[in-house]
């Protein structure tokens, strides 16, 4: 039996290589990678925008401090600055809808934000159903932070919103990965 390094060497020699931005990646490995892009996820809310950013090298969803909303112009300016600073290539905005699929009271605001972001940044913006993201984030925070006061503090500080955005981004990355594995374009 060969060692792990020998198996890696055999696969690498047998496969063609493609040129990545910084390194050569074996072709058989590159098929497993969805993309090497930075994605920003936004969990839309009337008080705060929960934010999460993907790590392009590993495609992990990382929470980012929530943005406390002031007005539309200020919110857009802050998001544009973040997009430029982090070199974001795609934005995913959570679409708040009811369990029966009908639009909620915040749906129109989320669509408006997505449209304005796409216009102002020139970056593709996708809407993604965000049902249950906040509930799941609340459950995770409750399990990791016992104590009612700590949970209330995390809700007020925006941790809950950022956790919901992280779940939204993780869902998007998992869905994209599954579609690329199945060979479906999109």
Please give a structural write-up.
- The chain has a single domain, classed as Nucleotidyltransferase, domain 5 (2-Layer Sandwich), CATH 3.30.420.140.
- The chain is 49% helix and 21% strand.
- A hairpin with a 4-residue loop joins strand 4 (48-55) and strand 5.
- It has a five-stranded mixed β-sheet with strand order 5-4-3-6-7, sandwiched between helices.
- The chain has 186 residues and is an alpha/beta fold.
Mind telling me the C-alpha Rg?
19 Å
H-E order: HEEHEEEHEHEHHH
CATH superfamily: YqgF/RNase H-like domain
Provide the structure class: alpha/beta
Contiguous low-pLDDT stretches (5 residues minimum) are: 7-34
Helical segment tally? 7
Distance between the termini: 40 Å
In round numbers, the mean pLDDT is 76
- State the total count of DSSP E strands: 7
The CATH architecture would be 2-Layer Sandwich
Task: Give the overall shape.
Answer: globular
CATH domain topology = Nucleotidyltransferase, domain 5
- Strand fraction equals 15-25%
Q: Strand order of the main beta sheet, please?
A: 5-4-3-6-7
Helicity level, as a percent range? 40-55%
User: What is the chains' assembly state?
Assistant: single chain
| Major sheet details | 5 strands, mixed
- How many domains? The number is 1
CATH class: Alpha Beta
